[in-house]
């Protein structure tokens, strides 16, 4: 059976944990692909860990295209997903047009943040043959309205909204959904309620897969490493030691 890459991710639910990481350029995409990571995201976290913005809301379509092109040059066997940046999918027309731009740059699927309020956009994207990855829970593109990065699913209303949004994403045709900063017990319940995989970040161990910002895992993120990152390889410190050692060797 010759499944599409997105379909292959979908069918991993219940069989194998999905490991997903972010990449923003050619060498990192190649390294992740060589390591057998099946889903690589050119995330708009790019804004914070590469471009030096304070949050992801400043990332533009031009910037996303530039980095997607670089990542796509690695021609990964992994599914290469690209984030639709802030305000790039406000209407069905812009969502479709910008998804097509990311695909033209080399993305094989797109991701956007939100639930029931963006199902028309998702249906249009999926109808155009572009696989769609959902993103629920804490939505970084809404960090300014939310006043920070807070855990979701703590109240009955938030829990019911997460259930309704996850079901809406599945029905709209998403092949999987990222759950960010969701109370673990609620992430587990969402995972049991839908037939597409959940990929957690700060959402406990019971999702169908896990995703991390790669620089958080490596310990090279510029400002801080989020609390949900349990493994940190401290490469930033090792890199600094290498620079110092080289300087002193001159
Ligand atoms: O932009 C990103 O890297 C993401 C992940 C944190 C899921 O959306």
The portion of residues forming beta strands comes to 5-15%
Number of domains: 1
Q: How many strands in all?
A: 8
Bound molecules: 3-methyl-2-oxobutanoic acid
The helix/strand class is alpha/beta
Proportion of helical residues: 40-55%
- CATH-scheme architecture: Alpha-Beta Barrel
The CATH superfamily label reads Phosphoenolpyruvate-binding domains
Biggest sheet descriptor: 8 strands, parallel, barrel
Question: Given the structure, what is the number of helices?
Answer: 11
Can you walk through the features of this model?
With 250 residues, this protein is an alpha/beta fold. It is built from eleven helices and eight strands. Strand 6 (176-180), helix 9 and strand 7 (198-201) form a beta-alpha-beta unit. It has a single domain (4-212), classed as TIM Barrel. Helix 4 packs parallel to helix 5, helix 5 packs across helix 6 (119-127) and helix 8 runs parallel beside helix 9 (184-193). 42% of the residues lie in helices and 14% in strands. Strands 1-2-3-4-5-6-7-8 form an eight-stranded parallel β-barrel, surrounded by six helices. The chain is globular, with a radius of gyration of 18 Å. The model has no long low-confidence stretch (mean pLDDT 97). Bound molecules: 3-methyl-2-oxobutanoic acid. 3-methyl-2-oxobutanoic acid is lined by residues 22, 41, 43-45, 83, 178, 180, 201, 211, 213.
Concise account of the structure shown:
This protein has helices spanning 5-10, 26-34, 46-49, 61-72, 92-105, 119-127, 143-146, 156-172, 184-193, 214-218, 235-248, and strands spanning 18-22, 39-42, 79-83, 109-111, 132-137, 176-180, 198-201, 209-212.
């Amino acid at each position: 059976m010759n499944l599409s890459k997105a379909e292959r991710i979908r069918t991993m639910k219940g069989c194998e944990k999905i490991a997903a990481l972010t990449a923003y350029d050619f060498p990192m995409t190649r390294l992740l692909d060589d390591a057998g990571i099946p889903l690589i995201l050119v995330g708009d976290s790019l804004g914070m860990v590469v471009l030096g913005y304070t949050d992801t809301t400043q990332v533009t379509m031009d910037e996303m295209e530039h980095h997607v092109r670089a990542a796509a040059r690695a021609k990964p066997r992994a599914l290469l997903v690209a984030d639709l940046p802030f305000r790039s999918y406000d209407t069905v027309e812009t969502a479709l047009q910008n998804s097509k731009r990311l695909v033209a740059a080399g993305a094989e699927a797109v991701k956007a943040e939100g639930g029931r309020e963006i199902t028309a956009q998702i249906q249009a994207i999926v109808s155009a043959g572009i696989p769609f990855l959902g993103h629920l829970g804490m939505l970084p593109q809404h960090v300014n309205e939310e006043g920070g990065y807070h855990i979701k699913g703590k109240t009955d209303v938030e829990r019911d909204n997460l259930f309704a949004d996850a079901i809406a994403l599945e029905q709209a045709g998403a092949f999987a959904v990222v759950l960010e900063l969701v109370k673990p017990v609620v992430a587990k319940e969402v995972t049991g309620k839908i037939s597409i995989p959940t990929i957690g970040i700060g959402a406990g161990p019971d999702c169908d897969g896990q995703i991390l910002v790669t620089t958080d895992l490596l310990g090279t993120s510029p400002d801080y490493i989020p609390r949900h990152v349990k493994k940190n390889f401290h490469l930033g410190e090792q890199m600094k030691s290498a620079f110092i050692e080289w300087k002193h060797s001159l």
